[in-house]
Amino acid sequence: MRLGLVVYDGLEGTSGGYRYDRRLVAGLRERGHEVAVVTIPREEYGRNLLDNVSRAVAADLAALEVDVLLQDELCHPSLIRHNRRRDDATPVVAIVHHLRCQEPRAAWQNVFYRAIEQRYLETVDAFVYNSETTRETVEALVGPTTGIVAPPGGDHIDPGVTRTQICARAHEPGPLRIVFVGTLIERKGLHTLLQGLAARPADEWTLTVVGDPTVDPEYARRIDRLIDILGVRESVTVAGRLPDAALASTLREGHLLAVPSGYEGFGIVYLEGMGFGLPALASTAGGASEVVTDGETGVLVPPDEPLAIAEAVGSLATDRERLAEMGVAAWDAYDAHPTWSDTVDRVASFTAALRKPPEPSP
């Protein structure tokens, strides 16, 4: 089967969405499918809307000879007109990680984004969703869809931990070792996490921040200033972006993964942390509840509520038996979760069923 994939800036991004696309392409190619990747430069939203009249984008899309065209929904501002002008029967499938209009921001801005996104969603034939929550948000805009839920796998890093190690780690003396993993952008909630931690005694916790600071440099500078304002510099390590091996080592030494994001369509980082026996502190907004069971494999807190974070951290820091139990439960949930291979197989079967039948021989 010949497939195309349209993405912004290639497949090397650090977010969970890029990781999903990267794993999907690799898995499809391993199964013998041809996958051509079309890259559109990601710019400011309004400038990407101009891609709809770009001859270069039109030429790149026209040059594709594929059975099914996949599009990362993140690219929606660039593709509306091109999708509407297609004159062939090639099915177009949107891979939806989450809708931009679901992200926390001013209501008037999301009204604008919702209108643009709805126009795009109406131009595609089918959908691959990363969660049931994502499916529901799309269908709330456009009605019932042809699509599948194919959640991310979490098995690209070998955790290399056991139940015994998880329990022993939880009972080690010293502060609660917390890990934040995510691109340093406001939606990921690092500022809220720092505010919540600052409300706890300084000797009760440490925080390691892993994530790319270059996507939103102003937010990264804001975080640096906030660390000083809150007086928590000695308890916080900002590690930046880490390779897989170093990230695995950091997670293996941690006690708790904390990413109180303002919105996640799924939250692959929670799943990855759970593989290392780390309960997840996540937000109630979006699809995190499909990954994290509140009170069992982690803690769900309302978005933008530092005091709820402080309460959750304090509870786990002082009750190490509960921390151990939640760590083991998280590890079990990770083990039962579908693998990346399962995800790729599901998408491959779905797209194969969509492709148009070959023309009959004369």
The percent range for strand residues is 15-25%
Helix content: 40-55%
- In total, how many beta strands? 12
Strand order of the largest sheet: 2-1-3-4-5-6
InterPro entries: Glyco_trans_1, Glycosyltransferase_grp1
GO molecular function, one term: glycosyltransferase activity
Protein name: Glycosyltransferase family 4 protein
Organism: Haloarchaeobius amylolyticus
Topology:
Layout: E1 2-8, H1 16-30, E2 34-40, H2 45-49, H3 55-62, E3 68-72, H4 76-84, E4 92-96, H5 107-121, E5 126-129, H6 132-142, E6 147-149, H7 163-170, E7 176-181, H8 190-198, E8 205-210, H9 217-230, E9 236-240, H10 244-253, E10 256-258, H11 268-275, E11 280-283, E12 298-301, H12 306-318, H13 320-336, H14 340-354
Parallel strand pairs: 1-2, 1-3, 3-4, 4-5, 5-6, 7-8, 7-10, 8-9, 10-11, 11-12
Protein traits:
alpha/beta, single chain, Rossmann fold, Glycosyltransferase family 4 protein, Glyco_trans_1, 2 domains, six-stranded parallel β-sheet, Glycosyltransferase_grp1, 43% helix, transferase, 362 residues
